[in-house]
Amino acid sequence: MTGVTLVTAVAAAALAACGATGAARVGNDRAERVDPIPRDNATRAAYAGTDACVGCHADLVSALGHSPMHNMTRPLGAAHPETAVKSPWPSAFRFHGDEARFETKDGERRMVLGAQTYQLTKIIGGRVREDFVGIELGADGRPRAGAEERVLPVSWRIEAKEWRYKGYSVMTPERRTLHEGAVWRTTCLGCHNTMPLLDGELGGIAGRKARTPAPWPDRMLPEDERRTLQTRDADTLAQWVRAAEVRDARFGEQDLVELGIGCEACHQGSRAHAADPGNVAARPSFTPRGAPYAWNEPLLAGKANPAAVAVDRVCDRCHQVLFSAYEWTWEGGTRTHSPGGSTINSGEARDLLLGGCRGQLTCTACHDPHRGSSKARLAELATPAGNPVCTGCHTKLASETALKAHAHHDPNGQGGSCIACHMPQKNMGLDGRLTRYHRIGSPSDPGRVLLDRPMECALCHPGSTTRSLVETTERWYRRTYDRPALEALYGDLDQPMLLSTLERGKPHEKAVAMDRLGEARDPRAVPLLDAELGDPAREPYPLIRQYARDALHRIQPGRELPSIDAAGDRTGAPARGDHDTGED
């Protein structure tokens, strides 16, 4: 499916008629039901579906329909021949002693794992990789009674044109076998589709972890930055929660507003607005409206911009996760104790709320949620041409003279980019390269210099020693850093900082060093990279071995290298673990 299905002229006329009578049709699959229009924007009945937005916002809906975000989840099967699939069929993927075969029968795509055959029902992603959801078939070729849709263990990496074990896109230890993954409706469903606001916030309202697969983002924020519930009508709220908890027990596709990210995934229930566009009181809202509850927002206690906070809170509902069970975070934090910034993709909005621009800068200042942001546009933002995003607030740094004094670099060169220094590339992205860290702060912050490896200056200066980078930073920014603490991190301060990080760092820190050393084509890194790629006892995470392999490819392009999962057949490789949640 390449885009949102646009309503026909007849349907648009019917929608206009509904607006005149004060009733609206709800959802694409509920077109025959006409109910009174609710006053809230949080309950399931308050949602109209993306097609209801076409009459007034055709250009935006069309753009959204072709964006990676909307097409995050697409249906597969003979009934959906328009769904674009980039992975090859038929083909096969061998993983140690197992094999996955990809077949097509009667227009239905199938994945065969040993004796089990799965009919593929959905495809997730499509910009960087494709993941698959399927349901197990019985001997009669039909879905097995009681079978759940499962996330399947093999992904197609689009740019690399290769199949990969799905779990190896996150910090998951080595596996020995291919096996079905988690139940789709309890994992991927919540963030990759459009669900009612009430169901998404149930965990926060009820004060417990809901089964509905919509993670409550505040749990991953410091305690003093978490929102608190404000009850406006206790009896009505109790009724709402009881109704939501009935769905919560078995929340599934039938409870979604629509597959994929639709308009109301961000703008919330807009059925009343679609029925009466001129009614100012019914305009879409990023926050609960007409509901028996609200949220007390601690960020607004300072000088935060309420509109910016509302937008960023929408984004952080999904872009806030710390994937898998990997414990370490940036700033020397851990997942279970004072977590710092995330080390891998999809934590960007949460990281923004942790940083220095929280409550002022919106995600949409850089990212277009309707059309998606091109690589060229994002690359431009990380040059001096992108500085107006920052100097709109930091006006004193807008001139070349002020920027040069602040950055100590050529204001027209790479060192004159605000984003290059304050949002460095140090997080592991889906495409196997580094992506930007969204916890905006200074590379001279003591927490970053003394608790993380490498210093962020090393990302642009890969051959520099630890001592030279530290002394330069101290001189420029009038800082002093504890030498014993630095020696504990790096050992010999006269060695190149990235090589010391590769030798002594935590896995996510090593990934940064690998990427930068590979980009620099530094041959001194080859022995350390070989050790990371070839020894599972030294490096149990295949994702980190992928970074080592990619770095070796750049340094020694003609060399034949082993697969990142080749170590799994060796003695001592960890077996399948309980922490493989499918959160990737």
Task: Walk me through this protein's architecture.
By secondary structure, this protein is of the alpha+beta class. It folds into 3 domains: 9-69 and 196-255 and 261-296, no CATH class; 73-186, no CATH class; 348-569, no CATH class. The chain is 29% helix and 13% strand. It has 20 helices and 17 strands. The chain has helices spanning 9-21, 54-65, 197-200, 202-206, 234-248, 264-267, 271-275, 306-316, 348-354, 375-381, 388-391, 400-407, 418-422, 446-451, 466-477, 483-490, 497-504, 507-519, 526-534, 542-555, and strands at residues 23-25, 34-36, 73-75, 91-95, 98-105, 108-113, 116-125, 129-136, 150-151, 154-157, 162-165, 193-194, 228-231, 258-259, 293-296, 425-428, 434-436. The strands form 5 sheets. Strands 3, 4, 5, 6, 7, 8, 9, 10 and 11 form a 9-stranded antiparallel β-sheet that branches. It is globular and about 70 Å long. Mean pLDDT is 88; it is low at 1-33 and 567-584.
Give the total of domains: 3
Helix content: 25-40%
Q: Report the total helices.
A: 20
Strand content: 5-15%
Q: In total, how many beta strands? A: 17
User: What radius of gyration results from the CA coordinates?
Assistant: 25 Å
Question: For this entry, what is the oligomeric state of its chains?
Answer: single chain
- Which structural class do you get from the secondary structure elements? alpha+beta
Largest sheet: 9 strands, antiparallel
Low-confidence stretches: 1-33, 567-584
Shape: globular
Report the end-to-end length measured between terminal Cα atoms: 22 Å
Mean pLDDT: 88
